[in-house]
Amino acid sequence: MDVIFNLSRTSYLLICAVALLLLSYLYQVPKNPPGFYIDESSISYNAYTIATTGQDEYGESWPLYFRAFGEYKNPVYIYLLAVLFRIFGPSIMVARLLSASLGILAIGLLLLLAFRLSRRLNVACLVALSACLTPWLFENSRLVFEVALYPILIVIFLLYVHRLSENERWGILDSVLLTVILALLTYSSSIGRLFAPLLALGLLFFVSRKRLPALLTIIGVYAISVLPALIYNSQHGGALMFRFWLLSYITPQTPLLEIARNFISHYFANINPWTIAVTGENNVRDHVGSVGSILLPTLLLSIAGIVYVLRYLRSNRWWQFMLYALVVAPIPASLTTTQFPQIRLIALPVLLHVFIVPGAIWLIDSRQKWQQMAMAIIVMSLIGLGTFYRLQFRKAGPERWYIFDEQFPREVLPTALSQNRLPIYFHDPPGKSGYVQLYWYGLLRGITADKFIRLTGEEKPPDGAVVISTAEQCSNCRLLLKSINYIVYNSGQNEDTK
User: Fold this and answer.
1) Distance, CA of 469 to CA of 341 (rounded, Å)
2) Percentage helix, strand, coil, to 5, in the chain?
3) Cis-peptide, bond into residue 255, ω within 30° of zero
4) What is the pTM of this model?
5) What is the C-alpha to C-alpha distance for residues 264 and 328, in angstroms, rounded to an integer?
6) Structural domain of residue 411, as residue ranges?
7) What would the pLDDT profile of 190-232 be if each residue is shown by its tens digit?
8) Is the backbone peptide bond immediately before 423 cis, with ω within 30 degrees of 0?
9) Domain tally for the chain?
10) Of 350, 380, 400, which residue constitutes the final position of a domain?
11) For residue 246, how many C-alpha atoms fall within 13 Å in the half-sphere facing its CB?
12) Does residue 11 carry a pLDDT above 60?
């Protein structure tokens, strides 16, 4: 056991393992998953239009939010991607590398936070090793979604709050920087509209006579920073809340008692250890493999840390704040009907990894042989399960091609272009949007958007036009291709296709 936890040997091995695993985040980018999910295409296409014209796909200049598929996407990730597209040009590789790089940086900063908390390199590397192997964090870094930015923002926020927690007085600059981070958390993901205010409220755990002016300043300035979102939502008919109302069990007709029962039910479902560590989310877009969203050894270490904090550190303000953050993190997701949505619970894996620190110290420092043995078993099983999951992801990734419209650039768009008739029309019935794939993949082929026409409402294409549609069938047409999610046809050919 002395060899396993010898500082120099263990730290050296852990550093090497973490470095290799961080590099593995770049492996198979952008091929796994194959294709490009429709939301990835929407985010990337709008990032391109912003980079080149300063407008979104609808011609709105420098929008605060981006309209797409009946919802509004958050701006921070899109503007960040626009900067990269401005420098390197648009591509799936650049977009997916951004998400992967954000995942790598988040783990690097998590290692730094763990080291500041423990002052032990082996503990910090163990936290980073666990984070690298965590399916939840890895999968979050594989897609071009706004939520890919969220883990790193949470870690930056925690790093800054921890540093400030050690100071008796918080200055003006501290207040401004912390408010900026809170604003980024608010505008980077839909869950941030509730989670960030809850984090801001949690800063009251650090209240003292000397800190009170700074805390009031932070809360006041932060409240001002969210006014643009409130105004935008009001001016656009409550658009920012439209998707929430579609997913939520909360309605004006629902009794408060029933709402409370639903919330409690969904909250406990979202923190169910069996779901977290064994089954994971039941959505193959966001989670694959036969292990949980968080590996069981990671969850056990986190639980050990929580128990240690409750028993020995409950008077420490920093750990009081961390317990509060852990409790409120599932609230946004628990207001919707979706069972264990990884994207809306993305703060959980970050916060649980912070609690590994006291758990690991407790087990490592113990003179009890059973605790030392438990720590050894946890580390070995963590590496074993993590490796097993990665192998499963490598195998299962290509099998998800149908979810990510991989056939669109391979067969749908080539079939339409082979007719040598421009413009190409796109028809997507209500609730089955797909037009942005034509814009995005056309862009990658060097075809400008004016060569594509999106049909709206009851509009009909002219006879002989080439049409791509997400409808399952067409009438008065000649079918050219039927693929998963799409058909390609010539209109007005007097040939009914069922």
Assistant:
1) 29
2) 60, 5, 30
3) no
4) 0.93
5) 13
6) 407-491
7) 999 999 999 999 999 999 999 999 999 999 999 999 999 999 9
8) yes
9) 2
10) 400
11) 9
12) yes
